[in-house]
Amino acid sequence: MKLYELAPTRSIRARWALQELDIPFESVVVKLNEGAGQTPEYLAINPAGKVPTLVDGDFVVTESVAIAVYLAEKYPQKGLLPTDLKLRTQLNRWMLFVVTELEQPLWRIAKNSFLYPEEKRQATDIELAKEDFRAMAQVLEKHMRGREYLVGDRVSIGDFVTAYTLDWGNEIGLLDQCPTLLAYMKRMYDRPKAAMRIKDAMASLNAA
Description:
56% of the residues lie in helices and 8% in strands. The longest helix has 31 residues, at 85-115. It is globular and about 45 Å long. The protein has a four-stranded mixed β-sheet with strand order 2-1-3-4, covered by helices on one side. The chain has two domains: 2-79, Glutaredoxin, CATH 3.40.30; 85-189, Glutathione S-transferase Yfyf (Class Pi), Chain A, domain 2 (Up-down Bundle). Helix 1 (11-20) runs antiparallel to helix 6 (157-171), helix 4 (85-115) runs antiparallel to helix 5 and helix 5 packs across helix 7. By secondary structure, the protein is α+β, with helices and mostly antiparallel strands.
């Protein structure tokens, strides 16, 4: 397998799944900031020009959550996906919640803070996005009270997806009112095969 990635992007989710599953893989760093995502060669495997991309033989899958689900499905003996229909549905529910209700406000903040050209940035949308994230984080905060994992009684790929997103929110100071989520995130990143935290991944990128 090859994982096209760049720290500290959502590649972390895919790498985390690979590490937890003990799957050997080749890492291919895609330097998006140097235009590597827009080369004809890379666009041929990921037309969006983003990371991560997983190449497994002749099969290519993009989008970090889809990659994590694919890997967990391919190695069911590792138990990173519930087999019970209702638990699996709840897992899907919360992963979709994370990437729509939590991740999207974070993207809006990033785009209006440094990704968009300066003349296109909207400071007011940053504040609105922060409000949106905080409100939805409280929904997850309530769900996680008394729980060790996102769903069920064992870890799943949903925990890796969620922990990364929470780490992103924490990096910009949006989890200060969510002690349950902060404790949950720490538990996940304390796992022996967890991926790097965003700040550490950023440091490794800057040092390269």
